[in-house]
Every structure is written in structure tokens, then in C-alpha cells.
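Dear colleagues,

As part of the handover before I leave the project, I'm documenting each prediction I ran so the next person doesn't have to rerun anything. This entry is a single chain, and its sequence is reproduced below.
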Amino acid sequence: MAITDDIVATYRGPRRVAARLLAGERHEARPLAYLLAALGLFLVAQAPGLARAAHLEPASPFAQRVMAAALALCALLPVFYALAALGHLAARALGGTGDWFGGRIALFWALLAVAPLVLLQGLVAAFVGPGGAYLATGIVVFAVFLWFWGAGLAASEFGAPA
């Protein structure tokens, strides 16, 4: 199945998609590719808001802002690996029987699957700017991310859905 089809299917049944992803090949390139693709899309999502900020405050040009955002996202790579480990340990404390690989797939896939909403949030940042709409969009993005991550951890640690 194409990755875009999997992303759409995640919005209908995140645990089923996560179980299917976990049943695939088990090599570290896959979760890393999910994470890098998600971070690349997050950078693209930030570009319209960064362009707006550069237009309103020309002291920092757009290219400088994009480079800073890209470096910040690169610096977060180890943080996401640590977060995946913490998610696995939390599920293990609740009786989960999964492994570290499953914890990484759950988190990194959740990040990639929520990327379309992050792109929407970037458009809100560009066209509306900071305010209530941007905050509401951020809350929705975070809630959907937690839903996807929780479903992925459930599939990884407690088995496929019934």
C-alpha cells in the first residue's frame, strides 16, 4: 500500500494501520524514513508562517528563519528517539509486551500521519497569524497526534485490534 494511502487509512483506523506496519519488514531504515519524512513535511509546513514573519519583521530574512527551523528540527532527532523509548517503557509498565522497534514505529508513524494537519496549521499561521484559530488548530493537531501514537503503541505493545 502506498504511504499516502496508509496516512489516509490511519485517520479511519490508526491501530489497524499500525499493526500492518509492524507486521512488515523489521529494519531500522523504515522508522527513520518515517521520522525524516515527517520532519521534512514539518519544515515545509513552517515555511508560510516564516515567510509571514519575515515580511512583518525584515530584520531576519526568510532564508535565515528557514535554516534556523531546519537546524532545530535536526536537533530534535535524538529527542524523538528518547520519546519513543519513553513511550515503550510506559506501555511496558502497563503490561505491554512489545519491543523498542515497535515503540519507534508507533511514534514516528504518528508524526508522519499527522503531517497533513501540521501543513494545515502552517497555512493558518501564514494567513491568520497568531491567535485563537492557530491555537485551536494546534490543539486539534496535538490531540490527533496523541490518538495516533496511542493506537500505535496499543498495536505494538498489546497486539493487533480484534
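The chain has a mean pLDDT of 91. The chain has one domain: 27-158.

All the best with the project,
I.
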